[in-house]
Specification:
Chain lengths: ~240, ~500
């Protein structure tokens, strides 16, 4: 009995050591972490802390998903920028409408759009932006990305501590990349009161398909007044995996 | 006190022909062009000159003298082009070089000769270098352009005129050496004034009456009493640094060291003057006479050598050193005062944030080209395409607040795309629409939200916008252009996607 207890203690300690080695610091007591307003989603992350020092991969296939993902990323970037942060948005064929970002808590004039002409400059530009630690976040829209390239970006992030949000818009293959998290955001029908016309607040099915040292899952969220609210049933990791297959 | 060097390339065109076609060496040939319905000799080779064929002769007469005369086409623009290239090359001797058409160069050599040891060594270096590249050259140095010009062309004496001795140098020379107009020199010939000394002591009023004011001006220019304008091929930049290398530099590492050294010197001067460079140009003079240009621009005045070096670093690969580079010239043609107040803008928590971001932007636009960086400010328009305007600089502040009460999509198509809808009239949202082959059944809708064209900006019909949601939860921003007409047809477009 005693040995078993010792073993589990040992395992727990080793786990936290590994996490620390991988760049996940345990939340120190008394230190307040950024609240992303993600509510239940936070449980998916190791030790319940949103991994700021890492690259987040977002995958979208359809135009509707792309729009939903852009909105979600804008909301996340807005939380990271807070009052005085700055963000760089890198892409080649930008469709993001700066005006539309203001609904997601982003001051559009604090976003610097880099609209490259050539695809081959994309990775370089994202890396350069990630190196600049005066930024709060870097959003990159890129189609294809391989493991080596993503590893390089992840290492840059670990150096500069600038969060990278990579949006892979309809990639040909969903190959594994070295991101801390893979998200998939799909739109859900909104809910309105019958008395009020309109289309209601944005609602998304927010799925974390992969998370390093965390628990993947899927949650229906509504974005309302600058924070995410859970509605309906969340899907735990086991159910989620069996659903996805 | 000024010092000028006049370079006379006596057989500029002929030498050029011989350089490109060495097989013509030793043969009489001329360059000829059509002039008033006859072909006139414009330049003749040394062998042709010996036969008495001179510029200005009609080609038929020249052929009579020498029947197997080689005739080449004369290109009118060639002398200017050649001299321009030679002037660029001569910048190694002085930053101020002017082209002196049709066959010369003028150098403002003030304060340059001592770098070669002495004036004699300076002139000798110019002459030997030009001669070794195949040009017949004569040079002279004097206090004024006029005297240097006259001595280089008409004097057989020692070509360096000591300061202040223009008059004694000119006395023995013919009146042509004062660059006078042809009628004036002809008149002087008729009057027997074969040398400058025979008329230079005449009272100015007499000279003016006989030969006109220009003659007096030309005399003044030669003697230094009248100012002569000087138009260098490259206007002198106030912020310029030069670095000549002992050995020709061929490697990228060497070029980078040179750039670093030049930037350090340049930035030191800029900091002292409280200026920052918005543009920097590096010119590399190769030993084969070619010049390599590299240019960078910054988004804000910068006097940081390390930052500008990073920008140049991206372009080092485009420099072709070939056999080697012997001189580097770094210039900052566009400078702006450094604004110390920059840190206060955007109320950033740490002061150097904005510089860091400006440097990032410079790096991005240096590689990816200009016009890739955009930042937007709100504008006082409802029309979606005009609701945002591009900010000119990083530090522009919005004049009005961003509006969050307007429901605008997160993705906007650059051009609205046509969709096919079925919608009840008059003002109901569509029941379904077809976009890119997919049929979307509208479940929820909001609208219409009419946005008028601003007639003072452009003509066109208003748009009635609807925000609609289909059964899958996709949200679209669609609009109807204008009113329904009598046939109840209207054009519908999709303009964006809501998150």
């Amino acid at each position: 009995m005693e040995t078993a207890l010792k073993k589990s203690e040992l395992v727990a300690r080793l786990r936290s050591d590994i996490l620390a080695l991988q760049g996940f610091r345990a939340p120190a007591l008394g230190v307040k972490h950024d609240d992303f307003g993600l509510g239940p989603v936070m449980k998916a992350f190791p030790q319940g802390v949103f991994p700021r020092v890492g690259m987040h991969e977002f995958v979208s296939q359809t135009a509707e998903q792309t729009a939903a993902t852009s909105g979600f990323m804008a909301a996340l970037a807005g939380k990271m920028m807070k009052q005085d942060g700055l963000c760089v948005w890198v892409g080649t064929r930008r469709t993001v409408y700066p005006f539309g970002l203001s609904q997601f808590g982003v001051t559009p004039d604090r976003v610097i759009f880099v609209d490259l002409k050539k695809d081959k400059d994309l990775l370089w530009a994202i890396e350069e932006a990630l190196k600049c630690d005066a930024l709060s976040a870097v959003v990159g829209e890129i189609k294809e990305l391989n493991l080596t390239e993503s590893r390089r970006l992840q290492l840059t992030v670990e150096e500069s501590k600038v969060t990278g949000l990579l949006h892979r818009v309809s990639p040909r293959l969903s190959n594994p990349v070295a991101a801390v998290c893979r998200w998939r955001i799909s739109p859900l029908p909104g809910v309105t009161d019958d008395v009020l016309p309109g289309i209601g607040f944005p609602r998304w099915q927010v799925a974390i398909e992969k998370v390093r040292n965390g628990e993947p899952g899927s949650w229906p969220l509504e974005f309302r007044d600058g924070s995410f609210e859970l509605f309906g049933e969340s899907v735990s990791s086991h159910q989620y995996i069996s659903k996805v297959g | 006190m000024k010092r000028y060097v006049a370079i006379w390339l006596r057989h500029l065109l002929v030498d050029r022909v011989l350089l490109t076609r060495p097989e013509l060496e030793g043969k009489p040939f001329v360059l000829a062009a059509k002039e008033r319905n006859r072909v006139v000799v414009k330049a003749s080779s040394r062998d042709a000159l010996k036969l008495g064929i001179e510029a200005g002769m009609v080609l038929a007469d020249a052929r009579a003298v020498q029947p197997d005369l080689e005739v080449l086409d004369y290109d009118q623009a060639l002398p200017e082009k050649l001299l321009g290239a030679l002037a660029e090359w001569a910048i190694r001797y002085s930053p101020l070089v002017a082209v002196d058409l049709p066959d010369g160069l003028i150098l403002d050599a003030t304060g340059c000769a001592h770098l070669w040891g002495s004036e004699a060594a300076y002139l000798k270096d110019i002459a030997t270098r030009l001669k070794s590249s195949g040009y017949d050259v004569r040079t002279a140095m004097a206090d004024t352009i006029g005297t240097a010009w006259a001595v280089s062309r008409y004097s057989r004496a020692y070509p360096i005129i000591p300061p202040g001795e223009q008059l004694s140098a000119l006395l023995q020379l013919p009146p042509h050496s004062l660059r006078l107009e042809v009628p004036v020199t002809e008149k002087m010939q008729k009057l027997g004034l074969y040398q400058i000394k025979s008329f230079i002591y005449m009272p100015p009023s007499v000279l003016r009456r006989r030969f006109g004011q220009t003659t007096l001006d030309q005399i003044g220019k030669a003697l230094g009493t009248t100012h002569e304008s000087f138009e260098p091929v490259h206007p002198c930049e106030p912020y310029q640094e030069r670095l000549s290398s002992l050995e020709p530099i061929q490697t990228a590492a060497g070029i980078e060291i040179a750039i670093q050294k030049l930037l350090e010197k340049l930035c030191e001067r800029l900091v002292k003057d409280g200026k920052g460079a918005r543009q920097a140009v590096l010119r590399c003079y190769r030993i084969d006479g070619q010049i390599q240009h590299v240019q960078i621009g910054t988004s804000g005045p910068s006097c940081s050598a390390s930052h500008m070096f990073k920008l140049f670093e991206l372009k080092v690969a485009s420099i072709e050193p070939a056999l080697g580079i012997e001189l580097f010239v770094m210039e900052a043609p566009v400078v702006e005062p450094l604004a110390n107040a920059q840190e206060a803008l955007w109320d950033l928590s740490s002061g150097n944030k904005i510089t860091q971001i400006a440097e990032l932007i410079d790096r991005l636009s240096a590689r990816a080209g200009t016009g890739v960086i955009h930042r937007y400010l709100p504008a006082q328009h409802h029309w979606p395409e005009r609701a945002i305007i591009e900010a000119v600089s990083l530090t522009d502040q919005p004049e009005i607040e961003w509006r969050t009460d307007q429901h605008r999509p997160v993705q906007l198509l650059s051009e609205p795309e046509r969709i096919i809808v079925s919608a009840p009239v008059p003002d109901y949202p569509p029941m379904l629409f077809r976009y890119k082959g997919d049929i979307h059944r509208v479940k929820k809708a909001d609208g219409p939200n009419r946005i008028e064209q601003e007639w003072w900006i452009s003509d066109g019909m208003h748009r009635d916008y609807y925000a609609v949601e289909d059964e899958q939860g996709g949200r679209y921003w669609i609009f109807r252009l204008g009113h329904y007409n009598e046939e109840l047809t209207a054009e519908w477009f999709i303009h964006g996607f809501f998150a």
